[in-house]
Amino acid sequence: xxxxxxxxxxxxxxxxxxxxxxxxxxxxxxxxxxxxxxxxxxxxxxxxxxxxxxxxxxxxxxxxxxxxxxxxxxxxxxxxxxxxxxxxxxxxxxxxxxxxxxxxxxxxxxxxxxxxxxxxxxxxxxxxxxxxxxxxxxxxxxxxxxxxxxxxxxxxxxxxxxxxxxxxxxxxxxxxxxxxxxxxxxxxxxxxxxxxxxxxxxxxxxxxxxxxxxxxxxxxxxxxxxxxxxxxx
Length: 233
Fold this sequence. Notes:
Blueprint: H1 6-17, H2 21-28, H3 32-41, E1 51-55, H4 61-65, E2 73-78, H5 81-94, E3 100-104, E4 117-123, H6 132-142, E5 143-154, H7 160-182, H8 187-197, H9 202-211, E6 214-221, E7 226-232
Parallel strand pairs: 1-2, 1-4, 2-3, 4-5
Antiparallel strand pairs: 5-7, 6-7
Helix pairs in contact: 7-8
């Protein structure tokens, strides 16, 4: 996927897989993604009844998991109307649409005023930003002073054996299964390619620091398959 028009391509791709996205997410990760989300969201525990923005919310799984910390409100934004439609149906079904609001929104042009949110979260979405620095800077802008950005993203595993096993699954098995179930030819080929191209670990924390975040930290998960990044305004 070329940088030119990446935003439009990401929107089109996620619109195309929305109907099977939740199933494939949990199936292809063997359910580990839920454990990662819970671990990442522990970073919200310091805030009392926080106001939360969930960027690249998709169908709202990260927003739903954040309810454990009794937020006063959660807004989820995403480029894909189809993903949001699935998410809104899910919120209504679970009786959560009074506290979790989902809307079309662009991470690089957030409609919110400065200093609005206690926490801004994004799970498996920053690598899809067309302009990473601009998206991170917008997230920082809408955070309250002392507020925290919590980013969960795939990364490159360490260790030769584990890395080899993971890469075989990620580049061969996952795209094959994803293509069969979703009927979308490129979405699950894009996933490993986008992870491979993404600046993970210290390369990413350096970008966060460059955007103005303080107290930046990273925590590696499951042998480095995923990483939790946090930064404070």
